[in-house]
Design a protein that fits this description.
Pfam families: DeoC. This is Aldolase. Keywords: Lyase. This protein is about 40% helix and about 20% strand. It is α/β, with parallel strands linked by helices. It has one domain: TIM Barrel (Alpha-Beta Barrel), CATH 3.20.20.70. The strands form 2 sheets. It has an 8-stranded parallel sheet. Strands 4-5 form a two-stranded antiparallel ribbon. Strand 6, helix 5 and strand 7 form a beta-alpha-beta unit. The two termini are about 30 Å apart. About 45% of the residues are buried. The model has no long low-confidence stretch (mean pLDDT about 95).
Length: about 290
């Protein structure tokens, strides 16, 4: 039986969810501004600080086991009003990609994280045009079954990637192919890339979002990776007008303050303001 994902939503019924589960990509963001090595402890400290500053304004927060979950739980950094989502994906990098392969993380025990407060699990799924659908479908089915057994909301995050040989591909077509392939497999919530990465015309973004709504049988939300932060609020608004229910995003909220000499203060001011504005966009769009 599916689990009601509204446990992750705002009173409006919309989703204003924060992601702090980035791993090596986050290290690279810090490294671009840091004079020395970026340690695991640096990543963990950021995740604790970001969760403490931003979770009062988010309906849910997504945290990874590798660098964040245990420390956030130990610190009691999550506001009681904010639901917890545990990332259940293990990443394998390649020379050209921070995430080249994904598997269900054996170190994330659904029963254990549920006892620690998790209401949901999230799984990243890489959609590549040169790979068989069978393995993707099998992984999603396995993930959904594990979530249902533990009474947790299942969130899948399909992302469009290029072929293994590095050849040309149609990123936009991959977003929609992934939705058609994986959007009706029983996951409780679907997390999608924004069509055109938010850079198309409003009509193009709206048409892409309407197509996603037709392909996905569950509620769905958008992520912010690839979308310029200043364009993300409009992308969220257009997506919600065409059937989306909100966002699960990190970079549009906090990426600009990573590595700032006043980062802790910036999280409480710049990032809080961005998150509150995005939540207002969602509330307005889903109640019209």
């Amino acid at each position: 039986m599916s689990v009601d994902p509204s446990v992750l939503a705002r009173p409006s019924g919309g989703y204003a969810m924060l992601a702090v589960d980035q791993r090596e990509a986050l290290r690279a963001m810090f490294a671009a501004k840091a004079p020395g090595p970026v340690t695991d402890a640096d990543l963990t400290a950021f995740k604790v600080d970001a969760t403490r500053a931003l979770s009062p304004y988010a309906s849910a927060v997504l945290i990874d086991k590798q660098f964040g979950w245990d420390a956030v739980i130990a610190a009691g950094a999550t506001d009681p009003s904010c639901a917890l989502i545990a990332a259940a994906d293990a990443f394998t990098p390649s020379p050209t990609e921070f995430v080249a392969d994904v598997a269900i993380d054996p170190l994330v025990d659904p029963a254990v994280v549920s006892k620690e407060g998790a209401k949901a699990l999230k799984l990243l799924v890489l959609w590549r045009p040169d790979e068989s659908a069978d393995s993707r479908i099998a992984m999603v089915n396995d993930f959904v079954a594990r979530c249902r057994e533990a009474g947790l909301v299942s969130i899948i995050e399909p992302v469009s990637r290029g072929p293994r040989d590095g050849g040309a591909y149609d990123h936009e077509a991959g977003i929609h192919a992934a939705a058609r392939e994986l959007g009706s497999l029983g996951a409780d919530l679907y997390k999608s890339e924004v069509p055109t990465h938010g850079k198309g015309t409003p009509a193009e973004i709206s048409a892409g979002c309407a197509a996603l709504t037709s392909a996905i049988s569950s509620p769905w939300v958008v992520l912010s990776s690839g979308v310029p932060a200043e364009m993300f609020p409009d992308a969220v608004r257009l997506a919600c007008q065409e059937g989306a229910s909100g966002f699960l995003a990190g970079r549009a909220v906090w990426a600009s303050v990573v590595g700032s000499p006043t980062m802790a203060d910036d999280l409480r001011t710049i990032s809080v303001d961005r998150l509150r504005r995005l939540a207002d966009v969602v509330d307005d769009a889903v109640t019209r």
